[in-house]
Write a structure and sequence with these properties.
8 strands, globular
C-alpha cells in the first residue's frame, strides 16, 4: 500500500525528557525499545540514489518489512517537511528477498542500525532512534500536527531537519573524517554507544 509520508527529524539531547514530554502531550508508547537493521539496495551505478529513491529491507525485532520510497510529483527541496511516496509491506523472509534483489542486479549499498521506540497519539507518530552517531527523533503525520507537536515540545524551526539517516551519516563522516561505510554499531565502534532509555509501556 502506498501513502505520502510527511515527517521531520530532530536531534535529542535528553531522551528521558522527550519521553516525559510526549507522555505529557497524550502520547503512548506503542512499541518498546527494539533493535532495527536496515539494508538499502541499489544498482552498481547507484541509480536509485540519483533519483532520491530507496529500496529497503528492514528487520525490526522479528518482523521483516520491504519499503520503497520516492519523491512526490510536487517535491520541493526547500519545504519545511519531508514528503515521500512510501510503499511498504511485511515479508516472511527478508534474507531470501535480498537474494532475489541481488539476482536481479541490485546489491546492498548501505546498512544502518538503530534502537527504536515508537509513540503515537490519535493523529500521528513520534519515533525515538538511538543511532551510532547520536539520538534523533522523527515526527510523522499531517503538517499542522507536526508543527503543533514540535512547538509544544519546545522545538524551533531551526531544530527540525528533512535529512535522511544516510545524509546525516555522510555529514558525520565529513565532520569526523571517518572512512566507515555503514552506520552500524560494529562499524562505528564503542565510542558511540546508544543512550540506554528504559521504555515504559
Amino acid at each position: 500500500m502506498s501513502a505520502v509520508e510527511i515527517e521531520v527529524k530532530f536531534r535529542v539531547a535528553d531522551p528521558t525528557a522527550l519521553d516525559d514530554g510526549l507522555r505529557a502531550l497524550g502520547f503512548r508508547c506503542i512499541t518498546p525499545r527494539t533493535f532495527e537493521r536496515n539494508v538499502l539496495y541499489d544498482t552498481p551505478g547507484r541509480n536509485l540514489r540519483a533519483q532520491q529513491s530507496i529500496l529497503r529491507i528492514r528487520k525490526y525485532g522479528d518482523k521483516w518489512v520491504l519499503t520503497h520510497k520516492c519523491l512526490t510529483p510536487d517535491d520541493d527541496p526547500a519545504a519545511r517537511h519531508k514528503r515521500r511516496i512510501e510503499t511498504e509491506t511485511e515479508v516472511a523472509d527478508g534474507e531470501a528477498l535480498g537474494t532475489v534483489f541481488t539476482q536481479l542486479g541490485y546489491a546492498p549499498a548501505f546498512t544502518y542500525e538503530k534502537w527504536r521506540t515508537e509513540y503515537a497519539d490519535a493523529t500521528g507518530h513520534c519515533v525515538l532512534d538511538e543511532t551510532p552517531i547520536g539520538v534523533f527523533a522523527e515526527l510523522e503525520g499531517p503538517p499542522d500536527w507536526i508543527d503543533s507537536v514540535s512547538a509544544r515540545l519546545g522545538l524551533h524551526a531551526a531544530d527540525l531537519s528533512t535529512l535522511s539517516y544516510g545524509r546525516l551519516f555522510d555529514l558525520w563522516r565529513e565532520q569526523t573524517g571517518s572512512t566507515v561505510t555503514d552506520l552500524t554499531f560494529s562499524a562505528i565502534g564503542s565510542d558511540a554507544q546508544p543512550f540506554q532509555l528504559q521504555s515504559r509501556a
